[in-house]
Amino acid sequence: MTTVLTDRRIVSDIDPFSPEFRADPFPHYAQLRDLGPVVWLEKYDIWCVQHYAQVKAVLSDWENFSNAGGGGLTNYFKTKPWRRPSIILDVDPPEHGRTRKVLMGVLSAPALKAMKPGFEAVAARLIDAALDAGTIEAVNDLVLPFPLTVFPDAVGMPPLDRHIMLKYGGMVFGAFGPTTDWYHELMRDAETVSAWIDAHCERDVLGADGLGAGIYAAADAGDITHEEAKLLVRSLLSAGVDTTIDSIGLALRALVDFPDQFALLTEDPALARGVFEEATRYDSSSQSLFRTTLREVELAGQRIGKHEKILVLIGSAGRDPAKWEEPDRFDIRRKIVGQIGYGWGIHGCVAQMMARLEGEVFFRTLGEKVGSLEHAGPSELRLVPGLRGLARLPIALTR
Ligand code: OVV
Atom 2 (ligand 1): residue with closest C-alpha? Predict the structure, then answer.
C-alpha cells in the first residue's frame, strides 16, 4: 500500500485588499489568526501568515522565503515587474548584503544625529503654524509636509516639485496589491513621474553632503557601481516618504483617539519615542509584505510549493495576543521588545532609525507645544494597496 500525501490546507475567501478589510483590518486579522497559522487565500492563490511566530519565522528564513519574487502580489518568477526591480528589496543574499551595507553606512548613527536639528526646526515651524490655525486637516496641513520636507532635504534633493515623490510612492506601493482602476489611473502619468524620479537619482542633482552623495561616495570607493548607486537613491525615494507620512498620521490619530495617552505625552514629551514605537506596532503604515518560496517548504505543518507567494501580515503580528499583552490597547509606555512593524531579519527596514527619529522629533515637539488635541471631523483612510494611511484627519489643537 502506498501512502498518498494529500495537500490539505486551510482555505479562506477573505480578501485582504478589499476596501472592507482595509477599512478596519484588525478584526479580520483576528479571524485569520483563529483559522490557523498558514491560510490559503483562494481569491489570489496566495498563502498568508498572521501570527507573530510565523511572521517572524518567514521573515527570518531568507533561504526558503525569497525577496526575488518581488515585494508585492506580482510574482516576478512568473510575471514581468512594472519597473526594474529594486537592488535591495527584490534581491536575496549574497547580492543583498552588499547594497544593504551601503545604505546602512549612509544611515549611520552620526549621520542621523546631524539630521536632528533640521528635523526639529521643521517640526516646530509646522506645529506652530497648526496652532496658529487652531483647526486643521492634519494630514495635508501638518503631517505630510514633515517627511516631505525633511526626507528629501536629508537625501540632498533640490526643493522643487517634491510632491512628485508622492505620485511615485503611490506607483511603488500601489504595485504591491492587485492592480485596480485606481492604479491604472495613477499609472497614466508613470512615464513622466518615473523620468522625474530618475533624474533626481543622478549625482549632479543631489547636494554634496546628503544621503545621495554618501551613496555615490560608496561607489567611488568601489563598494558598488555608479549605476547601482543611482538605483539605491531610487530605493530611498521609493520607500522614504509615504511610509513615514502614513505612520506619523496614524500615530497622531491614535493620540487623538486615546486622550489619556496624549495627556501622558504632554506631561512628559520624552515619551515621544514611545508614541511612535507603539504606533508602529498598533497601527503602522506597513501592514503587510510578501515573500516567495524558492523551493517546496513546510511551514507550521503546511506544505507550500515552489515559487508560491506568501502574504506576511506584520500588522496582524503586531496585534497577536500570543505575543502582546492587551494588543488592542494603545499604550505609549509599553515596553516593546521584538518590534515587527518594520519587518524583521535581513530585509527589516534599513532606514528604521531615521523613521524613528522623524517620529520622535515630531511627537516630542507636539508634546512640548500642544495642550489640547481633538477630532474636528471624521478621519478618512487612504486606500493605497501596500500601505495603510490617512487621507484626512481634521483636528482642533490649542497651546
Ligand atoms: C521597502 C521598500 C519599499 C518600496 C520600494 C523599495 C523598498 C525599493 O527598494 O525601491
Answer: 239
Instruction: Point out which residues pair with 395 in neighbouring strands.
Output: 136, 375
Write phi, then psi, for 34 (nearest 5 degrees). -70, -30
Residue owning the nearest CA to atom 1 of ligand 1: 239
Query: What's the pLDDT at 239?
Result: 98
> Does residue 50's CB lie within 6 angstroms of at least one atom of ligand 1?
no
Determine whether the shortest distance from the Cβ of 250 to ligand 1 is under 6 A.
no
Per-residue model confidence (pLDDT) at position 2: 58
CA distance 156 to 1: 69
What size, in residues, is the chain?
399
pTM, entire model:
0.97
Burial letters 141-172, b for 16+ CB under 10 A, else e: bbbbbbbbbbbbbbbbbeeeebebbebbbbbb
Among the CATH numbers 1.20.1080.10, 1.10.10.10, 3.90.1150.10, 1.10.630.10, which is that of 3-398? Answer: 1.10.630.10
What is the pLDDT, as a whole number, of residue 1? 55
Residue 239: CB within 6 Å of ligand 1?
yes
Res 34: pLDDT: 98
247 with 355: CB under 8 angstroms?
yes
CA 189, CA 385: separation in Å to the nearest integer? 18
- Alpha carbon of residue 377 to chain centroid: 26
**Mean pLDDT by groups of 10 residues along the chain of 399 residues:** 68 96 97 98 98 98 98 96 97 98 98 98 98 98 98 98 98 92 92 98 97 98 98 98 98 98 98 98 97 97 97 98 98 98 98 98 98 98 91 98
DSSP 86: P
CA distances from 80 to 70, 76, 84, 168, 389 (A): 10, 6, 9, 19, 28
Regarding the beta carbon of 38 and ligand 1, being less than 6 Å apart is answered no
Please state at what angle helix 145-155 crosses helix 211-220, rounded to 10 degrees.
30
Task: Copy the grid coordinates of residue 117.
Answer: 536639528
Per domain, the residue ranges of the chain are 3-398
State residue 236's pLDDT score: 98
